[in-house]
């Protein structure tokens, strides 16, 4: 097992309570930051650590923090994006459910670095029970003087609030999240201005993922340079991966960035291999919106080097032969999986979750879903496959927010790597009426 | 002042000008189409994506091109920026894609739609659309609803430009309509079929780029190209009173605000002027209105009719034949 920073004390009974968490060295980062560091030095430390946003885009966190506008007399806010809605991703839920104090501690330390007097944890509606766990943790933090006025006798005061969303995927987009947090319809804003200049209630705001904020705790405790030693190249530190699909041991794993994908899938310490010893067919490496890769390309890059779990290695080859680390939603599919059916499920999701603000996404997502449904029903034609390709290319890059891209990429990748399968569906409609069509087409035994 | 080059035309514009407005300052063919942006409404624009342009050079300081096409209505120019609109085939292809998206669920009921002839989507369709649709599924439909005594909402035709919502927000007090639901099934609606009652609600009809909001006092009375636009004014306590009358014979069929080249209202007018004053005697006539728009409606003002007569006369003087119909100013609608 590799190094663990966030889930180090995951196995300790009662770690969700304040007393046990404190015993295991909890809140040390707040003490260290408030007593020995200035906000500027803390931001510098995060820059040195090379920490990159864990929500999906992988933007350097220190750089993001340094962009925060600081006009005098204007409030600044830290908002934690806990609207974890990407299909295949469930790491933030695990972290908040098991070690809620780690997030609260990270919120206080990060807010000190940003000079925010208030911070918000925006959590998705379906996680209402997790919100209760967080609220209890915040209450305990107040009771023990980690939140409130003059924390540890310094002149830093801070309040942290939990806000429950209504369960919309789009509210995970940072500006839609801010709109929703302000009590409005969760529609993404048109950028610029960016939240760092005008975010929550028009004030400078930083929006970070749960895991990013939690990672600030070990960075402060060990120092940025020590953190940067972990990992590989520009992918520093550890990453939580939500592994799901046809593997023997699905779950949340913390791994040091740079671990070979092959080891992650087959080693007993992680996923434990494919169920029933079957053949690996494809992997969606970073949540449903990143391009799917066939087995040969996920284990090795196009250059023949072993593929590693890191931002660079997974991104190697662009979208032609590569993918993205994304949010770490690692979905493994064995040889019984129908890519077309899987794509239909993804497309149905994006159609349902499109906010309807801009035309390409509002109209295009529904259109793609309908065509995929037609192909699945056995009425597809080869022209439909080309049409799908054309539609996705007309959505990508033409929308206000990245949901358009998130809807277009899976379609593009599935057709790029598994076109023959789409053609199978079109050419052998007779086989498709059967639920087990895919097994028959490929001479497989159902799992 | 920043200098921007659009399709090879360079212009110096005030700080903070958007690419679209810079293009409008240059004028002519290079102006990107806009379905949701409305210069008179704050925060409008950015939704329809028809005004996208390619930025081939970001600025003098940072000459990198922008990776994706940008909405020209919401992107401000930088000094030294170079923009491609008509000169980029890839961009025109992308825009045709946006137009296709706008059309896949739009009913093709132009023959019975009151907006036909002055509809921005119709113009766009002619320009970028194809003769045949690639969309083979049922189009989404909604029930028609009455919002107040004067306005009919036909949501099926709506392209969700948000203009009418912004009119209600910025022109009247107390907005009672907005967008409900999400994604493909979002719709403009009032809260439980509430009536929109205020003196300026009629402006929603003028800003609607399609036939989703129509004037109930004009519905199905006439095709717009059979009516004659005349500028007129009256002494109104509520608004400027400067309007455009649409006459057929002695009758005033419709009163709207005056609009500029881009189809935008010049002065907002009140509901009294728009819906209640339908007699010629109510108005002081200024003269025929010139409509300078690339649309069917432009083909029907006195000027082009005169041009037609002149063209015919010229041809006859030359001893040639009568020119064929449909050539340039010789539109069948004029005859």
Instruction: Indicate how many domains the architecture of chain A comprises.
Output: 3
For the record, give the distance between the C-alpha atoms at the N and C termini of chain B, rounded to a whole number: 49 Å
Poorly predicted tracts of residues of chain B: 325-335
CATH architecture of the largest domain in chain A: 3-Layer(aba) Sandwich
- Beta-strand proportion of chain A: 5-15%
Mean pLDDT of chain B: 86
Taking the sheet with the most strands of chain A, its summary is:
5 strands, mixed
Provide the CATH topology of the largest domain in chain A: Rossmann fold
| Coarse morphology of chain B | globular
Profile the largest sheet of chain B.
5 strands, mixed
The proportion of residues forming helix of chain A, as a percent range, comes to: 40-55%
Q: Write down the domain tally of chain B.
A: 4
Within CATH, the superfamily of the largest domain in chain A carries the name NADH-ubiquinone oxidoreductase 51kDa subunit
The helix-strand sequence of chain B is EEHEEEHHEEHEEHEEEEHEH
Short structural description:
The complex is a heterodimer of chains A (447) and B (335). Chain A is of the alpha/beta class and 447 residues long.
């Amino acid at each position: 097992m590799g190094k663990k920073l966030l889930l180090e004390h995951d196995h300790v009974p009662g770690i969700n309570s304040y007393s046990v968490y404190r015993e295991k060295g909890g809140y040390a980062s707040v003490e260290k930051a408030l007593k020995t560091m200035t906000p500027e030095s803390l931001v510098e430390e995060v820059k040195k650590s090379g920490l990159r946003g864990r929500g999906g885009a992988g933007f350097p966190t220190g750089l993001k923090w340094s962009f925060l506008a600081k006009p005098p007399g204007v409030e600044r806010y830290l908002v934690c994006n806990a609207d974890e809605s990407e299909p295949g991703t469930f790491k933030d839920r695990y972290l908040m459910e098991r070690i809620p104090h780690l997030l609260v501690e990270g919120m206080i330390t990060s807010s000190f670095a940003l000079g925010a007097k208030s911070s918000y944890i925006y959590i998705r509606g379906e996680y209402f029970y997790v919100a209760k766990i967080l609220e209890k943790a915040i209450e305990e933090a107040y009771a023990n003087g980690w939140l409130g006025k003059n924390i540890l006798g310094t002149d830093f005061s801070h309040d942290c609030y939990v806000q429950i969303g209504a369960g919309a995927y789009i509210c995970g987009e940072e500006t839609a999240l801010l709109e929703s947090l302000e009590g409005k319809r969760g529609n993404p804003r048109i950028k610029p201005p960016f939240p760092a200049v005008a975010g929550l209630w028009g004030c400078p705001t930083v929006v970070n993922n749960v895991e990013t904020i939690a990672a600030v705790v070990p960075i402060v405790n060990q120092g940025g340079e020590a953190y940067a030693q972990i990992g590989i190249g520009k992918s520093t530190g550890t990453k939580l991966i939500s592994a799901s699909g046809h593997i023997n041991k699905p779950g949340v794993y913390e791994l040091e960035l740079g671990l070979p994908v092959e080891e992650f899938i087959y080693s007993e310490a992680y996923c434990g291999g494919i169920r029933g010893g079957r053949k690996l067919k494809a992997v969606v490496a970073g949540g449903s919106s990143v391009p799917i890769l066939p087995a040969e390309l996920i284990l090795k890059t196009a250059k023949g080097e072993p593929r590693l779990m890191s931002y660079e290695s997974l991104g190697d080859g662009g979208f032609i032969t590569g993918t993205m680390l994304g949010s770490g939603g690692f979905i493994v599919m064995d040889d019984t999986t129908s890519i077309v059916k899987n794509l239909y499920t993804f497309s149905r999701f994006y159609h349902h979750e499109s906010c309807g603000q801009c035309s390409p996404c509002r109209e295009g997502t529904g259109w793609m879903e309908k065509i995929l449904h037609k192909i699945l029903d056995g009425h597809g034609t080869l022209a439909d496959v080309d049409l799908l390709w054309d539609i996705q290319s007309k959505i990508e890059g033409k929308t206000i927010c990245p949901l358009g891209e998130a809807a277009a990429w899976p379609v593009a990748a599935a057709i790029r790597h598994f076109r023959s399968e789409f053609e199978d569906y079109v050419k052998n409609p007779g086989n498709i009426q059967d639920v087990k069509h895919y097994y028959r087409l490929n001479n497989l035994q159902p799992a | 002042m920043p200098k921007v080059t659009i399709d090879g035309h360079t212009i110096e514009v005030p700080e903070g000008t958007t690419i679209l407005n810079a293009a409008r300052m240059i004028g002519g063919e290079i102006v990107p189409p806009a379905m949701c942006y409305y210069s008179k409404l704050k925060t409008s624009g950015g939704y329809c994506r028809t005004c996208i342009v390619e930025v081939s050079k970001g600025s003098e300081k940072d000459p990198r091109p922008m990776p994706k096409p940008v909405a020209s209505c919401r992107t401000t120019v930088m000094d030294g920026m170079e923009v491609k609109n008509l000169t980029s085939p890839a961009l025109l292809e992308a825009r045709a894609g946006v137009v296709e998206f706008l059309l896949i669920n739009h009913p093709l009921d132009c023959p019975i739609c009151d907006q036909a002839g002055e509809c921005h989507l119709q113009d766009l369709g002619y320009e970028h659309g194809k003769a045949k649709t690639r969309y083979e599924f049922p189009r989404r439909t909604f029930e028609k609803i009455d919002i107040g005594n004067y306005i009919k909402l036909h949501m099926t035709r709506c392209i969700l430009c948000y203009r009418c919502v912004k009119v209600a927000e910025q022109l009247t007090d107390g907005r009672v309509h907005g967008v409900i639901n999400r994604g493909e099934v979002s719709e403009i609606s009032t809260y439980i079929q509430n009536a929109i009652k205020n003196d300026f609600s009629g402006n929603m009809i003028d800003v609607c780029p399609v036939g989703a909001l129509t004037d109930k006092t004009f519905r199905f009375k006439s095709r717009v190209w059979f009516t004659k636009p005349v500028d007129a004014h009256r002494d109104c306590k509520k608004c400027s009173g400067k309007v455009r009358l649409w006459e057929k014979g002695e009758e005033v069929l419709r009163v709207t605000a005056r609009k500029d080249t881009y189809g935008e209202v010049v002065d907002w007018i009140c509901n009294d002027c728009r819906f209640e004053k339908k007699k010629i005697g109510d108005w002081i006539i200024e003269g025929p209105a010139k409509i300078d728009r690339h649309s069917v409606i432009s083909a029907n003002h006195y000027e082009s009719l005169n041009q037609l007569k002149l063209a015919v006369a010229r041809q006859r003087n030359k001893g040639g034949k009568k020119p064929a119909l449909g050539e340039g100013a010789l539109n069948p609608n004029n005859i």
